Write the structure tokens for this entry.
Amino acid sequence: MNVVTPAPLVVDGLLVGAILFALGLVGLLARRNLIVMFLCAELMLQGISLSLVAWSRHHGDWGGHVLVIFVLTVAACEAAVALVFVLQAFARTGRLDSAAWQSLREANLPRIVDRELPATDAVPPRFPRLTPAGVAPATDEDALLEREQV
Amino acid sequence: MIASLLPSISPGTLLAGGVTATAASLWMLLPRGRSGRAERSSRWLGGLLGLAALAAFIALGRRLGSVGEDTIFLVVALVAVVSGAATVVSRSPVYAAIWFAMALAGVSGVLLVLGGQFLGVATIVVYAGAILVMFLFVLMLAQPAGLAPYDRVSNEPLLAAVAGAVLLGILSLSIGRLAADPASCCAVPATKAALLATDPGAGPNGPGTVDLLAADHVARLGGELFGRHLLAVEVAGVLLLVALVGSIAIVSRGAADDEATDSRRATP
């Protein structure tokens, strides 16, 4: 049997790929904005690409690299078709909300009901104010009649 | 280095702590439709927990692999992971898209370190240059002003965070097993090993392998792609064409439907 221990760098690449995949999964499950959901799916694809390239390095083979090229191709196709779907969905509902299409859910799932959201920020932005100082300059009456810009 | 502060903790404890911290941090960071002050404090706490989770995973990667020895790898991996997390938890989809571009930069750095020279560049060109710009176009077309209510809430944030963290834990566990017990993953079957032993062109990983880090990397990858995988390239070309035609068809079909409804409304 010919056993090759994975190089430390291969293990690192696999770990980073796993973290990216899990993050993308969380976003895909939790977020409701259709476009953010697609971004999270792309993040999962990035994690997969990292794992493939790491394995390619381990095996000393082009297979992982070639697969990642096809992942890129399919991601481009997917983005084109999916964004057209998103635009159509937006044109029909006026929202980028995945819950706007919840009539497509399984029969035994409860309906998503939006509650009233509290205000995001009670504090209005505070801008610095300069204390008035000195005397007001004399205004030129003729200059006020001129146009500000030509 | 943070990771060297944790030398005495066993990898199992590190993994459990990292997974718990990841779940809690993601749950706190995800939008949950709360008022401004509660949201801010929750994000602070979530960010701190996220840092703890990162430290745990760096320490774990140090045990399993070599995370932290190569500073460049550590930096690009941190950029990728932190921007990926920010993509997931950003309230505004525009910020999410821009954080995703940052994550792409990190991923392409990791690809370069791993020896994927062509792929590192292609990721930037194809993803950040084309796909992400398309996302931003659609966002600018469709995003209402300000934060929409559906950007301020999540579907089941706790369950999603726990599911992601548990998946991450399982994946890390199996990666750790690979590193500890390579016979479980990396054994070459006896017949193939016999074939490989007779292979004259041996790469650095033994007979039958190719040198991925050779100077003419792109030329060799192109040769492999257009030699052994030529049929797949043709199929990918057809797929691109079908996607193009399909998206145009969906758009024009939708427009025709809208016109039909309009004329039906107009006739009576």
